[in-house]
Every structure is written in structure tokens, then in C-alpha cells.
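Weekly puzzle thread! Below is a chain. First person to post its structure in C-alpha cell form gets bragging rights.
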Amino acid sequence: QVQLVESGGGLVQAGGSLRLSCAASGRTFRMGWFRRAPGKEREFVAAVSGSAGSTYYADSVKGRFIISRDNAKNTVYLQMNSLKPEDTAVYYCAAGSTAGYHSWGQGTQVTVSS
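Winning reply:
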């Protein structure tokens, strides 16, 4: 397992942008972002994995969010553009192997006002 520290959440108006960062204490095969909105279950947002840095997105954020990874810093970023009120949630960083995610961050709040 690794330790994960997230940053970059906050309050933004609809249509605005935010960038989340997640620094890991070590290198992992896969890193991703999940979110949990009030009254809803946690859902997958985006992930980056493997040496080639393959990326994956939920349909709800495709075309608006961009995930990237700095391997030298063991850090993953989530650039969120064209934010909508329905993007409001606690966002969690996760790290894992080919078998799945094994480490989770503490979460960072993102609030999008209409």
C-alpha cells in the first residue's frame, strides 16, 4: 500500500475549472479518481495505468476532465473543466495494481454552484 495526499478541491461556479492533485508515497501501476455525491454511492471518475499511461473515463466526465500522471513525482492530476453542479462531490484518489485499488486518499470536497 501507499499513502495518498490529495489537494485542490474547493468551490467554483458552473462552467469553471479546478485541478486536483494526488501525491503518492510510492509508485503504483494504476491511479484513479472516484467521487461520492451526497446520498449516492461512490463512482468511478477516471484512471491512468501502466507504463504507457492509458487513460479511462466515466461517460459523465468524458470530454471535460483530463487525468494525467507525473511518474517522477508519483503524482496524478485531474483537470476538471466545464464543471456542472452535478459534479459536486467528495473526490477520492486511489492507487492500485492490476488486481485492483488498494490505497485510498482522505478525499477532497468539490462544490460547483449554479
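Puzzle host: Confirmed. Bonus trivia for everyone else. The first strand starts at residue 4 and ends at 7.
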